[in-house]
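The records we work with from here on pair a chain with its fold. Taken together, the tokens spell out the fold as the letters spell out the chain. To see the layout at work, look at the sequence and tokens printed below.
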Amino acid sequence: MQRSGTARKSRYREDFARRRVIRRPVVHEYQSDHNLPEKLNEAKQLLQEALGSEWVSDDPAIACGYARDQSYIPGTYPHIVCMPASTEEVAEVYRIANRCKVDVMPFGTGISTVGATIPMFGGIECDLRRMDRILDIDERNMYARIQPGVNFCELQAEAQRRGLRVANPSTSATAGVISNLACCNINSLACKFGFGIDNVIDILMVLPTGEVFEAGPRSCGMIPAHLPGPGPDMTNLFRYATGTMGIVTELTLRLYPEPEHAYYLYPIYEESGMGPIIEALYAIARDNLAIELLQTQNTFFGPFIVNDNKQAESVVPVMPRNIILSVFGGASEEEARLKTELTRRMLSDISDKFDFLEPETLHAMMEEAGLHPLVVLKYMRETVRVQRVKGSFLIGALMDRLDNLALVEEAMRIATTRQAGTNDDVLKPDEPGLYFQPYHMGRVAYLEFDLYANQSDPDDLIGTLFTYFRAVLTGMKEGAIFAAGIIPMVKGLPMTDMVFPMAYPGLSVYMDTLTELKKAVDPNNISNRRWDYETGTMPKVMLF
């Protein structure tokens, strides 16, 4: 019996149709000599023999866990997932991949917000989480040697037991240290000691050919002190490479002493103009009394210390618009307080609109928002975690002279408002969360802005994407440089080979050198393959 009338609408079906449901791709790319089915089967068998069958799988139920991250980028399944346990096993993965011409994507701890570990064309996902040992911590010379599965929470805890600390960045506590260092690592110690990449002493790296490469003092038979050793410093080979040049399996990095006594100063500034904030940051960095320094806005600070949207909605209105986190240390409490008081007087001379939030007051504000007072210091100094407020967020990162970033920030905010409009939400589309990080005593600074998108809303996602691009390009137009080191990832993307050299004339030589280096260390183009050697173009377009 056939029913008459229109079909009954189901809210579940409508919701399902509205969401971006990602299905497993049947074919990853068209007409390629990489990742052929018969070669994938051969690679799987060889990997099982080399690593053990329990550490190699092509089960879709396992592969799906590697198809997405915290970004908005559509999912792509790897064909095979493997988990090597040593440098030699990583080298064997590459040897097998070269023999079968199967792509390899490195995977540290998977805490990525830009699709950095999603395999563009499938292939082998090389999960390094079994290599999770802290191999050595030298308390006297203040360094640690680690494997790629070690995260910041683990290393920070071990360092603090010895009176030391890691230059901890504004990322998840469970983020892999090595993979984060490869993407520069912005941290609150940067005003004194530089970015995380500046703190790398030596590396042990497996090249895509399967050869093992070592750089730094250890490679010359020297004690891993804080000097690069004779010859050029090749530890930067993996900087911003994100797996395109190989896999780092061991790394030595600097640690720093924890002060015996610490005191905190929280200058706040409620005005919209960033001029006095920039001047204050430069003055504090140049004065060299603070051991840690960063500036953040409430729309950035709130989502970084909360669990969900509901908490963000309660924290953001409570916090001041601009807050500077500065930490002072000393051999005594009196010394730390004296440094704090000198800085307070200096900032009062810069602008009478600066107020100073006492630690007790900040703790009370956090309690009012339903958070433990220590959560602020713990998250911002030691175990920062990135939350998926509204589902996903886009990180924009620009670098420039500190005094020019006020102009850059204003231009970017105007561009964001023109593109996204505004509303009355707590996290407004025209108010990206902003974060300033001076480094090298304020000579240069890093500006990060975060845009929050609803990942299940295509319209909101598209609007946020266009806003992101407009803001970034506007900032670059004002003289800032994009700080995320994306050139290895966007090489071959349509128009980028023309646009980037126009923005930065010297970039053509760099891109040519990068291409030749990639071809030299990865002749079969299997390690995080992005572009084709023959055509020079990217067969599949992804942002990163």
